[in-house]
Design a protein that fits this description.
With 114 residues, the protein is an alpha+beta fold. Helices cover 34% and strands 31% of the residues. The protein contains 3 helices and 8 strands, in the order αββββαββαββ. It has a 6-stranded antiparallel sheet. A two-stranded antiparallel sheet has the order 7-8. The model has no long low-confidence stretch (mean pLDDT 90).
Length: 114
């Protein structure tokens, strides 16, 4: 599966869920009320699952801790592209990240989500 295919599939989910999209972190990041949900890159997807769900996320196939800055960042998990080919699996990852995003206060500035 190509990264472009993954991006199209995530955009379809994002449209249904009311996400916004920004170009960031070398890929396309998706936000719910200003809180990051996930980021699609050329190697797969980073999901912001939160520290409470991180342990459960890391036992899933293709998952590893996110180390984009050179050090491990808690609550963020990378998922390799081949492990996102199945729609149900992709939706499961996004659902896990959405649980985290919905638990956070919305980020709003002057009536606009940031």
């Amino acid at each position: 599966m190509a990264t472009d295919d993954l991006l199209v599939r995530v955009r379809l989910i994002a449209a249904r869920e009311g996400f916004s999209e920004k170009r960031m972190f070398g890929g396309n990041s998706f936000y719910l009320h200003g809180n990051m949900v996930c980021c699609v890159s050329k190697t797969g997807m980073m999901a912001r699952v939160g520290k409470a769900q991180e342990e459960a996320a890391l036992v899933r196939p293709g998952a590893r801790p996110f180390t984009g800055t050179g050090r491990r960042m808690g609550g963020l998990v990378e998922v390799d592209l081949p492990h996102l080919e199945d729609d149900d699996t992709l939706e499961g990852w996004i659902a896990m990240a959405l649980r985290n995003a919905r638990s956070l206060p919305p980020k709003e500035k002057d009536g606009v989500w940031v």
